[in-house]
From TrEMBL:
The lineage of its organism: Bacteria, Bacillati, Bacillota, Bacilli, Bacillales. The chain crosses the membrane at residues 20-37, 43-62, 94-114, 126-143. It comes from Lentibacillus kimchii. Keywords: Membrane, Transmembrane, Transmembrane helix. The keyword Transmembrane helix applies. This is Uncharacterized protein.
Amino acid sequence: MNEIDWDIQEVKRLKKRQLIQFNFVVLLLFLLCVYLEETGKPFSLVLLFCFLSWIMTVYKLYELTTGKAFTKTSSRVLTFDRDRLGEKRWKRSTIIEIVVISICSILLTVFVSVTNFSDTRQELFILYPFIGAWIGSNIGEIVRISDL
């Protein structure tokens, strides 16, 4: 196994930068969700989440097959994770992630296909779980960063 001496402080800095980038994207997505919910377009909101879940699935498949990421920060963090976990464990973890995201994408696609959104204005209350998941993912990532 090709061991690389990693500067843990540098990896922590990169993971914090990645967390900030993630929070910026999620904030923009949250504002878009608020707008779509306020305008009474639940179909657009659910379709947006369906589309994003498929994009996440394709991105993770790309990451698994090529071993590359789109940004320099993500690429270095990916290299660190692969080195720290080992190739076999990293691959198994990524495959599990892809399967879970794919199942969610399929279920969301089925939901979009069979739900009648033309009825009266539907209250989705999708923003409360969204906020909870956002906070939970931040806490989890901060804990993982501090455990390095």
